[in-house]
Amino acid sequence: MVNTNLLMSQLQKIFIILLLSFNYTIALSQIDTTQVKQHIETLSSDAMEGRLVGSKGEKKASEYITNYFKELSLIPLQDKKFEQPFSFNYQLNPHNPGENLKKIEGINVVGKINNGRKHTFVIGAHYDHLGYNEYNLSTDSKGKGMIHNGADDNASGVAAVLELANIYSNNDVVEPVNFIFACFSGEELGLMGSKSLAKIIKNEYPNVSFMINFDMIGRMDSTKTLNIGGVGTSPRLNDIVFKNKPSEFKLKIDSSGVGPSDHTSFYLQNIPVLFFFTGLHTDYHKPSDDADKINYVQTNSIIEYAQSIIDTLSINPVLKFNETKFKTKKSNATFKVTLGIFPDYTDYGDGLHIQEVLENRTAQKYGLQKGDIITKIDEFIITEIYSYMECLSKLEDNKTYKLTYIRNYTTQTIKIKF
């Protein structure tokens, strides 16, 4: 015999899901493409002076983001202020750990939408960049004193956060989750802003069940490949990522919750994460990373895709957290040597894949190429980015080592001197 009460309950759940899905489909058409472009152009203009953490440029950028949050009528996270200060000590000379420390004060900008729900999603991106290359992080050997505007890195990611804040604050829908919109600073010097904020959010919002991070989403190339990390941090993420994928996109998936951006800080607080990234390019960390090189059409498509994932997850916002295999591999290593490559952070299991080779650096000098797979340096076996970093921390400058790599399925060994 049919239990009518149970049947009615199930029908009500189905109706709610269909209703939510309908409303979210309408919302997907609300991407303000003009506004996205304006955010990127403004944040990466010379007026922002490269948005270095602790600088006047960072303050200008934080005020721009704050004013936009106020325009959307978001609520400050705490202390009735959108701007959340933090401080840290930065090692000016990595060759002398513990010496030459500089105290830097930065600003995170955080707003929220309180829908009165139990669970909360965090939508984040870092807004800082390299300034005038004060800390020598430029990949341009002539970059000292030049403004590094960081249009892709990471005005593009911030634009995604601001546009999603715009959508969720103006779509006339009360979503099944609350939202925190977080723009971090200090990412370029070691995820400093997100480390501070992730701890605060975990303590004050224990029901945060998901975080999505955008870092460099503005330069999707002709292959239309989007890198998405963190899919292994909760059992449902992989399926939802693929079910919502735009047909024209190619996905490059990484299961790990640890990566070279701010989602790592939230993963280490046991929060499931996703990380959106369109890949490195020759303008990475150079003064030439400007707004006129952004692929605005695809950037808007990525924002729409991210929204569809957020909407799908929010229907059932209880996400089980999974540890991924790099959780305990925190690298506090300092390096006396550098190879001069852009590493691929994806774990393929067969070595460190070279994504780009920098001009006039060690790798180029010894003939290493994009696509080569480094498997061993000296006696150190290289399987992915973490073993590579651990290896570099143990090597000495002005010494010669054997390096083994794979090119076109053929293993080769060379001698290199750092």
Automatic annotation (TrEMBL):
A Pfam family the protein falls into: Peptidase_M28
What InterPro entries does UniProt report for this protein, alphabetically? M28_fam, PDZ, PDZ_sf, Peptidase_M28
* Residues forming coiled coils: none
* Domain PDZ as annotated: residue spans: 349-417
The Peptidase M28 domain is annotated at 108-304
Which superkingdom does the taxonomy of this entry point to?
Answer: Bacteria
Protein name in the entry: M20/M25/M40 family metallo-hydrolase
Native source species: Hyunsoonleella rubra
